[in-house]
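quick one before i forget lol
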Amino acid sequence: MDLVGAACNGAGFEPVLGPAFTTDQDTLAAIATGAADWTVFYAAQAARLLAGRTVFRPFAPPVPMAETFLAVHPATPARRLTPLLAACNAQE
């Protein structure tokens, strides 16, 4: 969270942290049933997960060597992710 948090702070907003998750599947289930939640997954990890009601959106990673994805509810409008994606992309 340090890299993503720093990217958000640098873009002028503070990410709202939710409860800690215990497993990847718990995280994806919470995102699928919640409001506009998101979390970051490494690409290799996202490729192995069954996401059903969650989608993985690629973005330029804060660390150039670590390809990452955002796990988001499929109905989350892209405009709601714009500040987060811009913050992460600005860290390159």
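fyi The longest helix spans residues 78-90.
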